Amino acid sequence: MSTSTPPPPPPGRRRWGITLDSLTVPNFRLFTISNVIAMTATWMQRIAQGWLVLQLTDSVAAVGVTVAMQFTPMLLFGLLGGVVVDRYSKRMLLLITQSAASVLSLTLAVLTLSGVVEVWQVWVIAFVLGLVTVIDNPTRQVFVNEMVGPQFLRNAITVNSSAFQLGGLVGPAVSGLLIVAVGAGWSFAINGIACLVTVLALLLLDTTALHRKPPTPRSKGQLREGLRYVVATPTILWPLVMMSFLSVFALNMPVLLVAFAGDVFAAGAGGYGLFNSLVAVGALVGALASTRRVTIRLRTVIFCGGVWALIQASLGLMPTQLAFGLVLVASGIANQFFFMACNPLVQLSSNVLIRGRVMSVYVLVLLGGQALGSPLMGWLIEHYGAHTGMMVSGLVPATAAITIAIVLARRHQLTWDWRAGRPGRWRIRRR
Which of 159-178 are b and which e, b meaning 16 or more Cβ less than 10 Å from the residue's Cβ? Predict the structure, then answer.
């Protein structure tokens, strides 16, 4: 199978004027506008959901269970989701998943605003929403390719992440204010309406301009084929190994930050929203800065993952709320430098005919790891405190990054790199 790569960009770094060149595609521009709205509302629901469970149970571990319920379906069925994505229309799948997400969010809003919500209901809705994510998340990853084609794919991936982080900047702050003023229910209602905005945007897309590929026909062994492809491709396998440690330990900020906002700094719902917004500020800066990168190296992925982990570990040592907030921004920047190297390298290292299955493995590791890690971190915080939990969340993946780097260096694989417009290659330096 040959790897599909975009044509070459101008040599050197991108000029700032063309860092958003994928937005010249009308379909992607419309989708991005709706995506900013949707991601803002999604972040609002995440913050409100975590704080609602904390209010109902007075338990950080229960918040961890909530996150686990939402991500467990990906752990169980994520690989099957990739097969579905490869077989059916991406636009049709997104219309179905966004409609279902709207119904679920509006149901949770009604339960909360009527004052009858119980924690088991939040868990059930989170689990069903996780089932929707099994299809929705890998579909979104691959649908970007259909909207912009290979020419703008690298930049579109970055813009897509920037939209997510812009939502993460605005959503938590707005949700925190809403929780203090009128309670969590309105955040759920807004997310339900935002999902319908995405449905409308999908209906308005010019389908004749999509870069569609023929659906993959049914055949035996498609799951095994996808897994074999991942294992046999170093630029897919090793980024996923690194991300598995980060997703289990470092990507549990809802659990960690709710503990720091509630127990360490006594900052309340407003502080919880502010902490999440500070992470998003850094992430947005990191995502936008990453648009200038035209070379993707395997060693960059491992290095950025290790730096992010060390910064996160240092959060457990911050003595004041101001210092904690500043390091949160740095953590967000490092977070995006990792993902803006990891995601494109995985996508661009995979053949377009199998990309849905490859990205389902990517999403499985990303979200499934959080399903495993969230209750673990919640238990750790309740027994050993928020500071210990935060330090462990960074030190374990930092150790993993060092170990992976040593293994790759011994195998002479650490210098593999990809540059837009030419196939990736091994640059081996013998000792």
Answer: bbbbbbbbbbbbbbbbbbeb
Q: Which two tokens stand for residue 172?
A: 């938590």
What is the pTM (predicted TM-score) of this model? 0.71
Torsion sign (Cα): 57, 396, 242, 226: negative
Those residues with Cβ within 8 angstroms of residue 379's Cβ, 6 or more apart along the chain or in another chain: 61, 64
Q: How far is CA 338 from CA 7, 366, 403, in A?
A: 23, 13, 17
d(CA 212, CA 106): 33
Give the containing element (helix H, strand E) for 362. Answer: helix 355-384
Domains, the chain, in order of start with CATH, read 22-211+221-425 (1.20.1250.20)
Note the pLDDT tens digit of each residue in 150-168. Answer: 778 777 877 877 777 677 6
Element (H, E) at 419: strand 417-419
Q: Phi and psi for 425 in degrees, rounded to 5?
A: -150, 155
User: In terms of Cα–Cα distance, which of 64, 1, 14, 73 is closest to 419?
Assistant: 14
In whole angstroms, give the CA distance from residue 142 to residue 46.
24
Joined tokens for residue 34: 């709706």
